[in-house]
Design brief:
Layout (H helix, E strand, L loop, with lengths): L6 H4 L8 E10 L12 E8 L5 E9 L3 E11 L5 E11 L14 E9 L4 E10 L2 E9 L6 E5 L17 E6 L4 E2 L5 E9 L25 E7 H6 L8 E7 L9 E4 L4 E3 L2 E12 L9 E12 L2 E8 L10 H4 L7 E9 L2 E8 L3 E9 L11
Antiparallel strand pairs: 1-22, 2-3, 3-4, 4-5, 6-7, 7-8, 8-9, 10-12, 11-12, 12-13, 13-14, 15-17, 16-17, 17-18, 18-19, 20-21, 21-22
C-alpha cells in the first residue's frame, strides 16, 4: 500500500538536526570567452575518478539556455579547502531527440551517486525535451565516459489514480546503497519531485493530483527498484515502482515547494538529506526572472524506512546572503546539489543564483558518541 499522505512528515522532530553549513567561498564561475558558459555555471554533481581525484560535474549554460554537463577537477588551498577548478571538458550534451524541443534543449542539474555495490556512478539529470523537464539516468565507471540508460519510466500504480510519467519531474537523487523497500526486501531507491500543474505547458489543463494528496505544492517522493532486477540489468534503474510521498512544504522558507539536493548520506541519526526550499512567488516556472528565494535545509530519513521523515530543520541551514547568491541569472538562490568527504570533513557544493558554484562545510553542531559520517 502506498503512503500518499504527508502525515508522518508533519510529525517529524523539527529541532533534532545537529548540523550546520559554513560558507567557504566560490569555487567556479563562468570563464570569459567560453561559449558553453556564457549564461552560467551552476548546480554541480560531484565524484571521484578511479585515481581518487575529486571532480565536479557542473551544469554549463550556453546562449539560449542550452545546458551541458561538464567535468572539472577540484583544486584546494593550503588548508585543504576547495577553492577552484581546472576544466576537463564536457561529458554530456543534449544529443538525443528526447533531450531537445523545437525551442529548447538541455541536460540539466546532474546529481551523481557512487554506488559501490554496482561499481558505478549513477547520474540523474533533467532532459529538457519536447514536454519540458523529464528525469533521465546515465552511468559511468570513471566520470568521463557516460552511458545513457534513458528516461525514467515510473511504473503505473493503480492506487495513485494517475500516471507519474505525465508530469514534469526534477531533483532525482539515489541512495548510495540498497535500503529496505516497502516489502522489507533490499531495493535501490531514488527521491524525486513531480510537479502536478500541467497548465504550465498545456494551457487550461491545470493541476492533477494523485489520489490521497490534497496539497498541490511539489514535494519529495521516493520510488524503488528491487536489487535483483538491477543486478540482472542495470537499466532496471529507469523503471522504479512503489511510489510514496516523503515530504511536503511545512515552513515559511519553503512555502512554495521543496526538492532533494545531494544524494542522502548515512549519519548516526539516519539518512541525512540536504534539501532546498522555495519561498516567494512563481508566475511561470519556465521564466528565469522569478520573485523567489531558494534556501537549503535538512531532513533525516528513517534508515529502516526511508520514506519516513524523523527530523527536519524548521529554519534554513543556509539562505541567500552573499553577492553571488543574491545576484545572478535567477537572483536569491542557494541550491545544494553535491556533497563529498575531503580529509574527514563533509563539503556541500551548491549553485549560487544560477550563475556560480559555491562550497560550504557541513559541521555537526553537537557532540555525540557516534560522530563518524559515511559519505
Amino acid at each position: 500500500m502506498s503512503n500518499t499522505t504527508a502525515t508522518t512528515d508533519t510529525a517529524a522532530d523539527t529541532t533534532a538536526i545537529p548540523y550546520r553549513l559554513v560558507r567557504k567561498g566560490v569555487v567556479m564561475s563562468p570563464l570569459a570567452g567560453e561559449a558553453n558558459e556564457v549564461d552560467g555555471v551552476l548546480n554541480p554533481a560531484a565524484g571521484r575518478t578511479p585515481d581518487g581525484t575529486l571532480h565536479l560535474l557542473p551544469r554549463l549554460v550556453a546562449e539560449g539556455n542550452v545546458s551541458r554537463v561538464g567535468l572539472a577537477e577540484v583544486t584546494f588551498d593550503e588548508a585543504g579547502v576547495p577553492n577552484g577548478v581546472e576544466r576537463r571538458g564536457v561529458v554530456l550534451s543534449p544529443d538525443e531527440g528526447w533531450e531537445r524541443g523545437k525551442n529548447n534543449a538541455g541536460v540539466e542539474d546532474p546529481r551523481v551517486t557512487w554506488v559501490p555495490s554496482l561499481g558505478k556512478h549513477v547520474m540523474s539529470y533533467v532532459a529538457y525535451g519536447p514536454l519540458g523537464p523529464k528525469p533521465a539516468l546515465a552511468v559511468s565507471e570513471n566520470l568521463t565516459d557516460w552511458t545513457r540508460l534513458g528516461p525514467i519510466q515510473f511504473q503505473y500504480q493503480p492506487d495513485l489514480d494517475t500516471d507519474l510519467n505525465l508530469f514534469p519531474n526534477k531533483d532525482v537523487v539515489h541512495f548510495p546503497e540498497p535500503v529496505p523497500g516497502p516489502d522489507g526486501a533490499p531495493a535501490y531507491a531514488m527521491l524525486h519531485r513531480p510537479m502536478w500543474d500541467l497548465g504550465w505547458f498545456r494551457p487550461g489543463e491545470g493541476v492533477h493530483l494523485p489520489a490521497g494528496v490534497t496539497d498541490e505544492r511539489p514535494g519529495i517522493w521516493i520510488s524503488y527498484v528491487p536489487v535483483a532486477e538491477v543486478e540482472a540489468d542495470i537499466r532496471a534503474l529507469t523503471r522504479p515502482r512503489d511510489h510514496r510521498l516523503v515530504a511536503l512544504s511545512v515552513f515559511p522558507w519553503e512555502e512554495l515547494k521543496i526538492g532533494g539536493g545531494p544524494a542522502p548520506i548515512r549519519v548516526p541519526e539516519g539518512w541525512l538529506l540536504i534539501h532546498h526550499g522555495v519561498s516567494g512567488s512563481i508566475e511561470n516556472p519556465w521564466e528565469q526572472n522569478q520573485k523567489v528565494s531558494y534556501a537549503a535545509g535538512a531532513m533525516i530519513l528513517d534508515p529502516a524506512d526511508p520514506s519516513q521523515v524523523i527530523a527536519r530543520s524548521d529554519q534554513p541551514l543556509m539562505a541567500p546572503e552573499t553577492e553571488e547568491e543574491r545576484s545572478g541569472t535567477v537572483p536569491n538562490v542557494v541550491f545544494p546539489t553535491a556533497i563529498e568527504e575531503i580529509d574527514g570533513e563533509l563539503y556541500v557544493f551548491y549553485g549560487m543564483a544560477d550563475a556560480h558554484i559555491g562550497v560550504a562545510l557541513l559541521e555537526r553542531t553537537e557532540h555525540t558518541e557516534h560522530t563518524e559520517h559515511t559519505a
